[in-house]
Amino acid sequence: MPSPPLKTGKQPSAPVAAAEPGPIELTINGETYRHSGAPDMPLLWYLRDVLRLTGSKFGCGVGQCGACTVHVDGKAQRSCLLPVSALAGQSITTIEGLASGEDLHAVQQAWVEEDVPQCGYCQAGQIMAAVDLLKRKAQPSDSDIAQLTNLCRCGTYPRIRKAVKRAAQLIAAARTAEAKP
Amino acid sequence: MSGLSRRQFIRVMLSASGALVVGVGPASAAFTPTVPMELLGEALTSLGAFVRIERNNRIVIGARGCEIGQGVITSLPMLVAEELDADWTRVRVEQLPYGYEIGPDGPTNRYGPQGAGGSTSITDGWKDLRQAGAVARWLLIEAAAQHWQLPHERISTEASHVVHPDGTRMPYAELVERAAAILPPAEPVPVKTPDQFRVIGKPARTVDARAIVTGQAQFGIDAYLGGALVAVMLRCPHLDGSVESVDDSDARKVAGVREVFALDGPVPGSSFDGNLAAGVVVLADNTWAALKGRNALKVTWKPGPWAEESTAKLEAQAAEAFKGEGVNVRTDGDMAAARKAAKRVLEARYQVPFLAHATMEPPAALIKIEPDRALFIGSLQNPSGASSVIANLTGLAREKIEIRMTRAGGGFGRRLENDYVAEAVMIAKKAGKPVKLLWTRDDDLRHDFYRPFGVHQMSATLDRKNQLTGFAHLCAATSLNYRIARKKERPPGQGCLEADDFPAGLLPNLDKRFFSLESGMPRGPWRAPLHTFHAFAVQSFIDEIAVETKQDAVALRLALLGEARELDYSGHGGPKFDTGRLAAVLSRCAEAIDWKRKRSDGRGVGIACHFTFGGYAAHAFEVSVDGRDLRIHRAICVADVGRVVNPLGVEAMMMGGTIDGISTALNLAITVKDGQVQQSSFGDYALGRMAQMPNEVEVIILPSELEPSGAGEMGIPSVAPALANAIYAATTVRVRKLPILPELNRLL
Fold first, then answer.
1. Which end of chain B is more exposed for a tag (fewer CB within 10 A), N or C?
2. What does the DSSP assignment read for B340-352?
3. Closest Cβ–Cβ partner in A124, A145, A146 for B215
């Protein structure tokens, strides 16, 4: 099965060593891709260098900062530590795949309304982590929110707190609206 | 704008697509075919001026600043939109590239000042960007006056429309062709009076927030270019060390690795106008291959002249330095005589560590060099410096170097130095290929222009009535200006001791001296440069004086500040320091934290205030220490930055400055051992996480009719002393050494 055309940029020619196994099939934002480069390449670099999905950011490369957070089967994971070989058959969502077309996800909407970003670099990771938190805790307390460990050097934490709470309200309101006949 | 005529300053043209384009620059270029194509074309990716009014009446405003998280991509276009009377809700903002060009009078920047440093973007824009917007509006009114055959004065504007006296509205877009044919006025046109403001002073959200939250916003690190190889580098861990030998056989075996070579560092002692450190470069098809190649390198390093340097030795060096005379920074009266006459002399010594910038986006740079031109894309704070660096290393004329600016993932002063730009150019030249250079976090923490290390010896003399008679501030530090060529002419405080800082000019006797410490650590400006450590020493010591003399710490400061008046201030942000404005932020802050209320259950309140870069700020914290657990219950920041352009932006800067200040004061230090930086990750350089931070920061911006100052830096200096003072109030333990938490643990 051929991989779908790349959305942006051009795939660098990553030579395949003879001993390497066949291509790895990855599902990212609902599309299927086949990676035949280094199987130990972390998902972050596959997203950025190969697919040119640059919304997931490099901040430390060792899972400490969270700027690269994506969802793997719906759970927040730090993509800098995930070799693509471990991801075959799993469904990956990046910040680029969070909104439904033009409709922002409630967390993204809350981020805009609370004017959270300053430099903005860590915010994709913060949003992906917050989406995961809200799946586990629909109405998170302050101490639940404090479990978010993504780093922000600009100091947007107080607005992140407000935005997570606002997002929880937006999600709850949408559910209530859906429940009505 | 003295000396510049409007005709020289404002450019007007009609683009090929029928848009009116208004910008700044020499007039002679405006009506000649030499206008760059991007000004005339449809493409908006490289917008050529400040204002474009398109046929559908959408207004596009160019943002000239380096957006590093300080909000200039929103606030600077607001200045243009205000004077243009644009409908802000329909304005689209586009980032401008760097605007160097050769004008009729020589080199100039077609967009005016573009760098981000010293909190000057708003003060600069307040002058020229408002004028650019006002001229565009003047032209549109003039066009409407011709169309309606009415006097100019009878026509008004509102929300991207001209308004006829009878109420008829016409979109700006319908007047564009006529407006472009009108010569702009020779004299500056009047700008609005504050009562006419519709955009300035109103909260405006970040213009590109949607792009940020959907992952579409472009940062320097996100730039890719066909044919570019990814470069990473293993840099020498020894200060001013070099490469002795390299075994790259394993590195070259990594699939995707294309080239490996050594790169020299600067000559020890020479100015840092190129790269920062020697090392071995690995070029590969992708980042992962490059990183694997780097891991496979076996390099033997040759330590440089600083192999013995350590933080412990710097501390000893400072203690020794104080025995000397030092360099006079400011002397008032006779401090020696004041000491003799004093009933009591109080002394305290404070210590502050080196700090790294640790921008969330590490340094990265994309460069393509061709025989007659170059293209650079990267996150910058100092695009003019980047342009010079590229020109120097390539031999190309600066106007042949295209610099595309992106959002930057933080700046904090790191990107004022363009060593990573120089490094990318050197690598690209050697490789003969376009290069995308990436620094990893360990590179970033181990190779930086660090905030200086310093020890501050403070003394205060008191008379029989416990009144302060004299103040001495001796600072032994690694000068800020070490090996930075452009800073050689700085005054004797060497970027570490401000002559006119509080309480200078408020006491009869003052003794300020600087003692330079020898160190091989590169140093540079770190957000609010010297003020972060300066304020810690001064505002902690004032608190100690208050405790020792049983005075109220707020009342003591207010008494020292005295009547509201302007004092001379030679540092950046001068020429005047207004004691009344500092007293006002302090008083408001004390009121907000309920300063006079006695706390029970182990809680303590601390306060501090500081003047920096034309802005005034005070912080207060309410804390408790339970065992070794420090909790911040309340955090208050009061600021006076003159007139506020974007209240949301200023609030974010103050909130962010406060959080950054707490994170830094509590935990962060860069230390040296055996001539090597010891920290290399967010594990040992642990930026504060949400759980350690107060849930909120109560930000109070004092209303002001005065000219706006910037807001990027004043939110941080008074944080560390206010925290240390609060800890003292809660525990009677005085923290005199940063970072606070390890020192507090040692003292408890």
1. C
2. HH-SEEEEEEEEE
3. A124
